[in-house]
Amino acid sequence: MIKDVNVENVNQQRGEKSIFKGKKPSQIIRKENLEALQRPVLLHLVHGKVKEFYSYQNEPVAIENLKRGLASLFQMQLSSGTTNEVDISGDCKVTYQAHQDKVIKIKALDSCKTERSGFTTLNPVLGVTSKATSVTTYKIEDSFVVAVFAEEIHALKLNFLQTIAGKILSKQKLELKTTEAGPRLMPGKQVAAIIKAVDSKYTAIPIVGQVFESECKGCPSLSEHWQSIRKHLQPDNLSKAEAVRSFLTFIKHLRTAKKEEILQILKAENKEVLPQLVDAVTSAQTPDSLDAILDFLDFKSDSSIILQERFLYACGFASHPDEELLRALISKFRGSFGSNDIRESVMIIIGALVRKLCQNEGCKLKGVVEAKKLILGGLEKAEKKEDITMYLLALKNARLPEGIPLLLKYAETGEGSISHLATTTLQRYDAPFITDEVKKTMNRIYHQNHKVHEKTVRTTAATIILNNNPSYMEVKNILLSIGELPKEMNKYMLSMVQDILRFEMPASKMVRRVLKEMFAHNYDRFSKSGSSSAYTGYIERSPHSASTYSLDILYSGSGILRRSNLNIFKYVRKNPLHSIQVVIEAQGLETLIAATPDEGEENLDSYAGLSALLFDVQLRPVTFFNGYSDLMSKMLSASSDPMSVVKGLILLIDHSQELQLQSGLKANMDVQGGLAIDISGSMEFSLWYRESKTRVKNRVAVVITGDITVDSSFVKAGLEIGAETEGGFEFISTVQFSQYPFLVCLQMDRDGVPYRQFETKYERLSTGRGYVSRKRKESLVAGSEFPLHQENSEMCKAVFPPQPESSSSGWF
User: For the segment 727-746, what is each residue's pLDDT rounded down to a tens digit?
Assistant: First the structure.
């Protein structure tokens, strides 16, 4: 029985600011709750373990949980050992350590089996690290327990930004004060009969903590909340942190909304804000939000392609997708489409979902098995080039080991673009899957043992070999080939080898070993001229994490861009995240300047396009032009405006954890991170000035929020932490091919980045009284200069004026 209840603030320094100051317990807890709290509970103990927990029916769940927390302290044993116990935390593994004057009970909280909602981002870079401990000490004197001290700690931190962190510390203390006579023993054969004799209102209820929801007073409806934030989600505001913050808060609202409420808002919104609303509804990832968006979108129509694509991209970036989402996309794929581009995007995103579900031990789910058959069977039977490309892109996302034999076939025997896509797909596989058989095929492609291949295919094959534990002979043969390759490919391979050495990549030891021999390391081989390049550098580096960028550019012998490949990786304790990849490819443009194509590229159609990979998800490539007539019409009519590759709001970090503390209190730990992103690219080509220019522009706004709360239903305490930033970079490559060697300028600009961090601590009574403490820190991260090449040439400076200090440029 709990008597003489009092509520105090743990932090005695609050003084006059204490939310309990001047209030009686009945005013804090509320009269009906206080009466329930003081009503006795009965425990049926057998050898120190709680067999049954008896309480009145229909008491407030939050109050019953406080009693459960107290009752759980009475569960103990005097001997050392490990066992399983059921208490307020669930069915948990506990270890007892018996000493002369005390017994220590350590509860493994991660082993507790209990029904609690929650999810997390699977990627270790974007995920969180949480740690929980529970230790209870029983002090013993003369075989009596005279005191119990329990301490439970839950800590959380975001892996890549460790300032987003928080901790919950929960303590219980039970001390023996006096001993006096209690009620007389009641004899009986059945426990149930004894309980009924004590009070017929008692009933056996679980000792495991039960879920309760605190009443939200004055909270806006979904429609009201949307109206208050929609102005921040106008297209012109998407580069601001406020847009992302509004996006994150709206997702929380959507997760408690019904399908009808969501549909009502979707149908009433205008076309400017609708794409952002689709991003939010899809990112909510609830059954109601999925049903609403699928009812709203008509894939048979070509009038809402932008909305369909935004839905699909949000599915691809889903933080914790389920089988139902995958099944929904499979069903859509088997239906009819108003746009072939959307059909292609559906299959590509199916591949991304397969990968995520397999990472979460869902590879054997029926939906995943069905999707695998769809991808692999489709690739095996596909005859049209467009279908082969679609299934290869899906496999590039799914990375199914069983797809490797098909990839090897297309890589070695497929025509140019198909062969290149198959090799870049193999490049995405983890090292254990790049077997000797795969490397033998890559060696045959690079050295052209069976057929002539395009430069883009050969260089990708060489990259796969060098990035996956190359043998001495593999490195030796690649080095010996330099000098026998087409001009620009010579220079590219030389730059790649130098980059491996300079950046100390894993293959650098083997390369150095081979270079000790004069036949491989000589002036003739290492003095090859050209403009193609490969370079890797650090954006930021710390003992805990690092960000790297790499840029490789391959030109044709006539000076026209063949491939530009920009990659940004984030590493946290060696766990990688492929944040961004932007590839611009061009081919078959030599006839425009009456130049001779390189070997194996004599019959290529004119083509230029852009392919993007974002946060480990391959997106549908974008075509600038395809075919000579398309090229000429766009050269005569097109402006230099960039083409959007991906634009929208993405839920990047999504962690939610509901905790039952041993004390009986409920706790929640939530972390969300979102970004607004706009990646665009363009390719300009001037016959008059004999100049080509490619641009890749990336604008982002990022917001991360963490919310840790402890709730007793009548009082709530919390910590809100957040960080936000806005920024972007632009990469420009300019080539003048009026002479050879042609002049090239590479520029990479990164603007100054504002960084803001917030912390709010609060305590609030259910009656409305509260305490709030806020902190804010702002800083400006200056724009950085990134080297883009290892060489400089004064000759280029005469043609292209040097760039301002805010940009980085490499001239060669």
Answer: 877 777 777 766 655 666 77
Whether the Cβ atoms of residue 138 and residue 175 lie closer than 8 Å to each other: no
Task: Indicate the residue type of 271.
Answer: K
Range with lowest mean pLDDT among 142-146, 255-259, 333-337, 721-725: 142-146
- Alpha helix ranges (H) inside 467-611: 472-481, 487-502, 508-515, 523-526
| pTM for the predicted model, two decimal places | 0.88
If you ran DSSP here, which 8-state letter would residue 320 be given?
A: S
Confidence label for 417 from pLDDT (cuts 50, 70 and 90)? confident
pLDDT given for residue 443 in this prediction: 96
Give me the phi and psi of 651, to 5 degrees please.
-85, 105
CA R_g for the chain: 32
Residue from 433, 406, 435, 436 nearest 422 by CA: 406
Give CB contacts under 8 A, 24+ apart, made by 546-552.
546/570, 546/571, 547/571, 547/579, 549/786, 550/499, 551/731, 551/746, 551/748, 551/788, 552/492, 552/495, 552/496
Task: Give 529's pLDDT tier (boundaries 50, 70, 90).
Answer: confident
- The helix (run of H) or strand (run of E) holding residue 649 is strand 643-660
Alpha carbon distance, N-terminus to C-terminus of the chain = 83
Spatial distance between the Cα atoms of 250 and 257, rounded to a whole number of angstroms: 11
Q: Is residue 318 helix, strand or coil? A: coil
Question: Rounded CA gap, 428 and 398, in Å?
Answer: 10
Among 87-91, 478-482, 605-609, name the one with the lowest average pLDDT.
605-609
Give the integer Cα–Cα distance in Å for 784 and 808.
8
| Residue 541: Cβ within 10 Å count | 12
Gap between the Cα atoms of 751 and 753, Å rounded: 6
User: With bands split at pLDDT 50, 70 and 90, how would you rate the model's confidence at 785?
Assistant: low
Mean pLDDT of the chain: 87
CA atoms 369, 375, 378, 381: torsion sign: negative
pLDDT at 741: 58
* Bridge partners for 539 per DSSP: none
- Going by C-alpha positions, the residue among 320, 157, 119 that lies closest to residue 723 is 157
pLDDT given for residue 645 in this prediction: 65
Q: Which residues pair with 168 in a beta bridge?
A: 154
Query: Does residue 96 carry a pLDDT above 70?
Result: yes
Cis peptide before 405 (omega within 30 of 0): no
Please spell the DSSP secondary structure of 168-231, one letter per residue.
EEEEEEEE-------SPP---S-HHHHHHHH-TTEEEE-SS--------TTPPPHHHHHHHHGG
Interval 180-195: pLDDT, tens: 888 888 888 889 889 9
In SS3 terms, 337-373 reads as CCCHHHHHHHHHHHHHHHHHHHHCCCCCCHHHHHHHH
Question: Any residues with CB less than 8 A from the CB of 793 and at least 6 apart, and which?
Answer: 743, 811, 812
Six-digit token string for 768: 């409305």
Burial of 687 (0-12, 13-18, 19+ CB in 10 A): exposed
481/318 Cα distance (integer angstroms): 44
Report yes or no: 191 and 44 within 8 Å, Cβ to Cβ: yes
Q: How confident is the model at residue 235 (pLDDT cuts 50, 70, 90)?
A: confident
